[in-house]
Specification:
Length: 201
Amino acid sequence: MINFIHGTLASLGGDYAVVDCGGVGFKMGISVATSSRLSMKSGKDVLLYTYMAVSEDNISLYGFAEEDELNLFTKLISVSGIGPKAGISILGTLSPDDLRAAITNNDAKTIALSPGVGLKTAQKLIIELKDKIGAPDLSVGTSDQGAGINKEKAVQVIDTLALYGFPRAKVTEALKKLDTSLPLEELIAQTLRILGKEAGR
């Protein structure tokens, strides 16, 4: 099993990267997020964590800029019906924290936004992975006293705005920017302002 590849980025496509390692070019499938991180590194040293998918008629290598993304990928493809291509598609649509938030909040609709992933598959993914993944990183959004995010209040905001059609993952991301020691009504109002600005871009 190849754990990682360290070499020179020889070529980069939308869904693949070729890394020259000791004169051998390793072609790897990559997510949109990893492609973005590599976009300015042509001809430079890169390190990609890797997963080798082996089937009866094919051997494919997948690369990830972050080990956390690789760990989530291996969990995704452990779900029946989700192969490497679907796993890459999900990680190209949602960041690791957005994916964790969607799973934690039973938000199958957000996961199903990934190309090639239907709602039933997303629901199955949530059932199988809910107890196997870590919680989303909500450590941002601190009060003046440095206390971390008020998770109970954050869940109230997420549940409230989800009723009005806001994706739970996007609400979670907005909450990271706010001081959750604020009164609930003010926190909801500020979250809506952030979501409104992002929608208007």
